[in-house]
Amino acid sequence: MIRKIKNIGHLLEAELASLIYSRGRISIPTIGVTGTDGKTTTSSLISHILKEAGYNPAMVTTVAAQIGDKTYDTGLHTTTPSAFALQKYIKKAADYGCDFLVLEITSHALDQNRTRNIDFKIGVLTNITHEHLDYHGTYEKYVKVKSKLFKKAEISILNLDDDSYELIKSVLSGKKIYTYSLKKKADFTAKSIGFKEPSEFEFNSENFLAAVSAAKVLGIEDSKIKAALKTFKFPSGRQEIVYQGDFKVIVDFAHTPNSFKKVLSALKKTTNGRLIHVFGSAGQRDKSKRPLMGKVAGEIDDVIILTSEDPRSENVDVINKQIRSEMQDYKGEIFELADRQIAINFAIQKAQKGDTVVLSGKGHEKSMNLGRGETSWSEHEAVKIALIERDKSITKTILDAVPA
After folding, report:
1. How far is CA 236 from CA 4, 67, 98, 202, 253, in A?
2. What's the chain's Rg over C-alpha atoms?
3. Which of 88, 237, 239, 314 could make an SS bond with 283 (beta carbons 3.0 to 4.6 A apart)?
């Protein structure tokens, strides 16, 4: 009941925002991208293809809002901004002459009417897996909320391989639907699109296919899509190699069982040594995913270092105990270091030639919530500090070995 009342408030806010910023007259064809994992990468690739094809797209994602040559910070821990912020960005995009808006959309935003009065030309689904059940209650309710995007969109692009497909399709009677699949016969497949994905998209195959499907539906020529793929750079904190020497350090935003399976499996294939994984789980969020994350990590990682990831008011030790609850058969090394900087220092100290160190869960984020509000945090800066500490340690070891 309380949530319904709050959502009525969000609805009124969306109507007021639309009235203030657009007066109902601004309409930019919008490509909405939703799903549990891969939204930012898929949105960024669609926007990049549009730009390389000669269009002038605006884009709003978890990382930032990009309108023309300007980048706007959308706030901490924000994927889809408030209705007022969204309408403000749409107004800016219209003033700048943008002909498309690519918008990353969460289930929370759909449930809270933040995207009301937005003209969705295309709705794209990446996947719907275990996440946000603390908010939605069940997987079926989670899917139902996600379906709101596709009910509004002129055209839906759905993942035929995803468990959510039949549920979403069942509520889209009479709507235009295109499907993509890595495994089944669909409108768009790895074979039917006419060209192969670049090697760097190996563990983004679904995201790659979703974005290319959207481009093809929009009528963009294959030659322009291929050219865009060659110049695409992944968003900050997504499969980002931040150090490469005798060992690699990768920063990734993965924070669900599904994203763990995809990212860790791909990294394992390309790692000659050990896969060293630093991660935790956010406090005051879906607790039921924690054992599943631990189970996946335990099946793939060689070394696990559990640490903080926005624990908020929850005890880090309790969170990590829940992560470990399905890891009884884990044969690798496991450590718990609540301080994330110390955990990253330890991982990089431990790294040897051929190893891959992956830091997951924080990605591009600029803050960490340790229960006392937001404090400044950067995964990239943390790696720099850790590498400096490693160099100091190596230098000291060498100096200690030199006879006096």
Report:
1. 35, 17, 23, 18, 9
2. 22
3. 314
For tokens 């992560």, name the residue: 323
Give dist(CA 16, CA 14) in Å, integer.
5
In the chain, what are the domains? Answer: 7-231 (3.40.1190.10), 240-395 (3.90.190.20)
pLDDT in tens, 64-122: 899 998 999 887 666 678 888 888 999 999 999 999 999 999 988 898 888 888 889 99
User: Quick check: helix, strand or coil at residue 4?
Assistant: helix
Task: Name which of 238, 242, 304 is nearest 276 in CA terms.
Answer: 304
Beta strands 70-72 and 248-252 are unpaired
Q: pLDDT per residue over 243-278, tens digit each?
A: 999 999 999 999 999 899 999 999 999 999 999 999
Token pair for residue 120? 């969705």
| 393 vs 280: CA distance, rounded Å | 26
Q: How confident is the model at residue 17 (pLDDT cuts 50, 70, 90)?
A: low
Q: Which one, of 214, 162, 216, lies nearest residue 194 by Cα?
A: 216
Contacts of 267 (CB under 8 A, 6+ apart): 203, 250, 275, 356, 358
Beta carbons of 113 and 11 less than 8 angstroms apart: yes
Q: What is the pTM of this model?
A: 0.84
**CB contact at 8 A, 66 and 107:** no
Write down the mean pLDDT value for the chain: 89
